[in-house]
Design goal:
The chain is mostly helical. The protein has a single domain, classed as dinb family like domain (Four Helix Bundle (Hemerythrin (Met), subunit A), Up-down Bundle). 62% of the residues lie in helices and 5% in strands. The protein contains 7 helices and 2 strands; from the N terminus they run ααααααββα. The protein has helices at residues 5-23, 28-31, 42-67, 82-87, 90-111, 115-119, 132-156; strands at residues 121-124, 128-131. It has a two-stranded antiparallel sheet with strand order 1-2. β1 and β2 (128-131) form a beta hairpin. α3 runs antiparallel to α7 (132-156). 27% of the residues are buried.
């Protein structure tokens, strides 16, 4: 499938509202649920998405557009959100994410990548050559992946409460 920047941008713009509707006002015990050791809570995911907007997607796009394959992207610290997560409430994290994403979308609009820029290649530290279209598509898919993670984690919070209906609920598997 070809990458349509308008579709990618629209998906990115929806994520803060989706998360706000799903999570705002959630009790702390639910906001802190995880799927087990080494997994993130809904709070952690929101903090992670904000951290990724600030340090990953657009910084890499800028490097790619400025240097092409000549400069390797800086590695992304997937756990770099944990300090902020520990200091803010879930509602504050949601507000921070919404503001950060709005800034990110304005910056993406300012880049105004056309077909030639979308085809331009940069160098990922693990994968090697990647295109701007792949990077931007991954940004949108990354949002969806974490929305799925949050809903799966919240669904798991009902595991014992649903009793035998677990057998019919894919979110419990």
């Amino acid at each position: 499938m070809n990458v349509d920047l308008g579709t990618v941008r629209a998906q990115l713009s929806r994520t803060p509202g989706v998360l706000d509707a799903l999570l705002r006002g959630l009790p702390d015990d639910w906001a802190g649920l995880t799927e087990g050791p080494g997994t993130w809570s809904p709070r952690g995911v929101v903090a992670h998405l904000t951290h990724a907007d600030r340090t990953n997607w657009l910084p890499r796009a800028r490097v790619l557009l400025a240097a092409g394959e000549a400069q390797v992207f800086s590695p992304f610290d997937r756990a770099g959100h944990q300090a902020v997560e520990a200091t803010l409430s879930l509602n504050e994290l949601l507000d921070d994410f919404a503001a950060t994403r709005a800034d990110s979308l304005r910056a993406l609009d300012a880049l105004s990548p056309g077909p030639a820029e979308l085809a331009r290649r940069g160098t990922h530290p693990e994968f090697g050559p990647v295109t701007l279209a792949q990077l931007l598509s991954t940004w949108a898919a990354h949002d969806l992946d974490h929305i799925m993670q949050i809903t799966r984690t919240l669904g798991g919070g009902y595991r014992d409460a649903v009793g035998p209906w677990q057998a019919y609920l894919r979110i419990m598997r």
